[in-house]
TrEMBL record, chains A, B:
This protein's UniProt keywords: Aminotransferase, DNA-binding, Pyridoxal phosphate, Transcription, Transcription regulation, Transferase
Homology family: In the C-terminal section; belongs to the class-I pyridoxal-phosphate-dependent aminotransferase family.
Protein's UniProt name: HTH-type transcriptional regulator YisV
InterPro entries: Aminotransferase_I/II_large, HTH_trans_reg/aminotransferase, PyrdxlP-dep_Trfase, PyrdxlP-dep_Trfase_major, PyrdxlP-dep_Trfase_small, Tscrpt_reg_HTH_GntR, WH-like_DNA-bd_sf, WH_DNA-bd_sf
Protein's organism: Saccharibacillus endophyticus
Gene of this entry: yisV
């Protein structure tokens, strides 16, 4: 909305505010049931006193356009709608409530909405700080792109052959032998999960994942009606999978290298136990390997590299290591599976950005990517050391954690179960954004996912100072 | 697969072919049930005689790795799988058959798979010929992009504010008054339909569309379990919608300007009839307006421009007029609807390519787009005239059509119902790709969607010569 009010004398500020809000309602921008911003926010945005806003809202309430709900501010009135408009508009809220896809959890939506606001200190963000993104090199590399007209058309179902060939070469280096028709380019690994969900699973299938899991913070499987169950890569995994998955289609999702959110990598034994169990039970494994290039020291090869039976669907991405804005990732799988997923992708978005695919291919082919990834790893390692010291100084008495082996995250464990929604909100009010453990493991009130990759040193210190204060506050009043 | 065989004397060509195919099966690239390419294709690819291929396949059949199905070639055998592999792989075909998302119809998959092959003459393709894409200007414009590091991160849920502002300005010019929070950037209009489908409709909702409809060639609603019903923008529309939609959530989809596939635009009366009916019944309208910039003469404004009740969801795109490879489109809707769709998009692919968004914003802001669109319209008009003359000369006695008012398509109507799957396949075998009417209207055997926008003049002539021959063949033997 245009927040700037005019200062012409015959339009009072109050009348102008009334007109602006009425206009939004008339145009259907604010539908029945929409909650208005808080009075203090409206006052700030319009640049007027709060009393002027209050008077305007009172007028709108008197006209029946707004209504108050106890303790939670002003809403666009449902009943008054018809009075204002000649015709009624569709009941959007009912549409939204009844629809197929689940809404993001409230905390996750608050995080998504707050992240673009630069006034927040982001202590948990799962992406690289702008200073770690090779913006200048990317800009320069645009000059080297040779766009030919064919590449600007609709993509082939599997994605650009040039990019798939570059990915194939990269996979060879990891011990994965794939052909271009075993590779489908996707708009990031999240889209890969979405395609697998609707393209390979039936309604009511079981998806196994670790108990603290990225899959709890996004819902590609839940929204398609899958049943989510946890497993641990321990000796009883086969029994668990067999018992829980009985009679249903199943799939197992894992991030064996640098798990999100815990930062842990599976050891040789854990990998073998899970792979063998899945082999015996014919359960496909989705190996989400998007953090691989951020391992500080070379780790174990991907599970896919020793997959002799084609049961591993392997996911890679440039989002964590080059630029999330590229939206480029890939799935590696047997060719009939790839053909199926590509078919679903064609029905979903007709392929990924040709520009992004050209840039990605250029970076992989030219060595720009390998060089950048090497520098990035050492910068991330330096950040991790700094973060550990800062955590030790400020939270050492309240929490413990493992030294990270790569990637972005430290899975901070508080000794007391203080990380609840109130804790998150208090920090949000103080402009510190954390990723609480409960968005990854619903019953977890002990952890937060701390990211070393986003906040600057100064921000980290200020953020941790505030975090410390709120920890102390929670501990001194456990009922909050 | 690596098709190049070595000429070392101790590896016969037959043994090498056996080894290559075995390897593909072992790696799970060719799963049980996969159909092998035809013998003549394998022979061509390997560069050997067909008899060598046949001998290799016979050997693989004897080993139980392949099996023959009568009249349809060689398949990877299901039973032999276990013999070859120590462990069995997941039954991918079962996964695929049982999964949530519908496969594309066979004809559509054949079209998608054949389009990238340059040996085909594409008479129906719904995209601009490479020569109509401004590849050079796009390449040059990359030099003017200023990528800052923030734009390379994950997108805001609604998409880049810069691009939304540029879209907003464009919408103003069409009489649509929107705010940036009424706009969500999507990866093309097809993704918009996908988001609307899972974000605003419940399972079993009714989606109304015209009888020849783009929605029959993609399945964003069908795959989410919606019931598809047709309507006509005639005087009985209200009755039809009321009767058929009774007791269910409904939505109406239309392309009022230059419908795909018919190329028709609604007149004033048709627009009003549909809008009023939907208003009365509170049925949201999806106005798919992706062809607007290709109208040869200014048409009626978008329905959205006179939508006083916020019931129209408006879709725009740069795919038809600038570059499909950009994958950039937008949805315009009331802000609670936009917030919901953006939330679903964040769960689907975390936003569209930042690079594509920057390029799109730059083209819209700088006037490059407006200038290009103007030139494109006159080129398309010239192509349409040429196509009409060529059609008249070759098919004038067999078919009729309306002179196009813009866009890509001529909805060619054959006087006899000859456009069946056999007709399509015969043309496919002769390397002429058409878009038969039955992919847009299942019972239609009269039409093909002829596109003026893709084939060159020479290709159009050669393609139409072949088309004419096949038409005559069909007419002389109506039982084919």
């Amino acid at each position: 909305m245009d927040w700037k009010l005019s200062s012409r004398p015959h339009h009072t500020l109050q009348a102008q505010i009334v007109a602006r809000i009425t206009e939004r309602i008339e145009h259907g921008d604010w539908a029945a049931g929409t909650r208005l911003p808080a009075q203090r926010e409206l006052a700030m945005r319009f640049g007027v006193n709060r009393s002027t806003v209050q008077a305007a809202l009172d007028e709108l309430k008197a006209d029946g356009l707004l209504e108050t709900r106890q303790g939670s501010g002003a809403y666009v009135s449902g009943s008054a709608w018809n009075a204002l408009l000649a015709r009624s508009q569709p009941n959007w809220q009912r549409h939204i409530r009844a629809s197929v896809h689940r809404p993001n959890r409230h905390t996750i939506r608050l995080i998504n909405e707050s992240e673009p606001d630069p006034s927040f200190i982001r202590l948990g963000t799962g992406e690289l700080s702008p200073e770690l993104l090779p913006a200048e090199q990317l800009q320069r590399s645009l000059h080297d792109l040779k766009l030919d007209a064919r590449t600007l058309g609709y993509s082939e179902p599997l994605g650009s052959l040039r990019l798939r060939s570059a990915v194939r070469t990269r996979l060879e280096g990891l011990g994965i032998h794939a052909q271009p028709d075993n590779i489908c380019i996707v708009s990031g690994a999240l889209q890969a999960l979405q395609l697998i969900s609707v393209g390979l699973l039936e309604d009511g299938s079981t998806v196994f994942h670790e108990s603290a899991s990225y899959l709890n913070s996004v819902h590609p499987f839940q929204s398609a009606g899958m049943r989510m169950l946890t497993f641990r890569p321990g000796s009883d995994v086969q029994e668990r999978l067999a018992r829980a998955g009985r009679g249903r289609q199943s799939l197992l999702y894992a991030v064996p290298a640098l798990n999100n959110p815990t930062g842990r990598s599976w050891n040789e034994k854990e990998r073998k136990t899970v792979y063998d169990a899945c082999s015996d039970l014919r359960i496909p494994i989705v190996e989400d390997d998007v953090y691989r290039d951020l391992l500080f020291a070379p780790g174990l090869p991907p599970i896919k590299a020793s997959d002799s039976s084609g049961q591993v669907l392997y996911l890679g991405s440039l989002s964590k290591s080059l630029s999330p804005g590229l939206r480029i990732g890939w799935i590696v799988a047997p060719s009939p599976v790839i053909a199926r997923l590509a078919d679903v992708k064609m029905q979903t978005d007709y392929g990924s950005s040709a520009f992004s695919q050209e840039i990605a291919a250029h970076w992989l082919e030219s060595g720009l990517y390998a060089h950048h990834a090497e520098q990035l790893r050492s910068k991330l390692q330096a950040r991790a050391s700094f973060a550990e010291q800062a955590l030790h100084d400020r939270l050492g008495e309240f929490a413990d954690w493992q030294t990270p082996e790569g990637g972005f995250y430290i899975w901070l464990r508080f000794l007391h179960p203080i990380v609840n929604k109130g804790f998150f909100r208090r920090l949000l009010d103080r402009k510190v954004l954390i990723n609480p453990g409960y968005i990854y493991a619903p019953d977890d009130l002990h952890h937060i996912r701390f990211s070393c990759a986003y906040a600057s040193q100064e921000e980290m210190i200020s953020g941790l100072d505030i975090l410390r204060e709120e920890v102390i506050r929670s501990l001194s009043n456990p009922n909050r």
